[in-house]
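quick one if you have a minute, typing this from the bus. theres a chain ive been looking at and ive put its sequence and its fold in token form underneath. please have a look and point out which stretches look like helix strand or loop to you. anything you notice is useful, everything is just below.

***
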Amino acid sequence: MALDSAKKQEIVAKYGSNENDTGSSAVQIALLTTRIAELTEHLKVFKKDHASRLGLLKLVGKRRRLMKYYKRTNKDGYAELIASLQIRDNI
């Protein structure tokens, strides 16, 4: 369920400050959101894949912690990020 490098570079270019900015919170949240969406589609087809479901829950928890940190440190950037990713603000 890993992202291919072309899609990953596209996300980094869109949300990062430069093309090598893979460590910023915004980029990490965007990458996790993409992986979560792909795993969700996978689990709609394969309902009994409990190993992937566990991985999905871990990714959701990691994204939640990153979003909490990003909201605390950069409120304006956080609001723009959740609007562009179309995710809820439940932090």
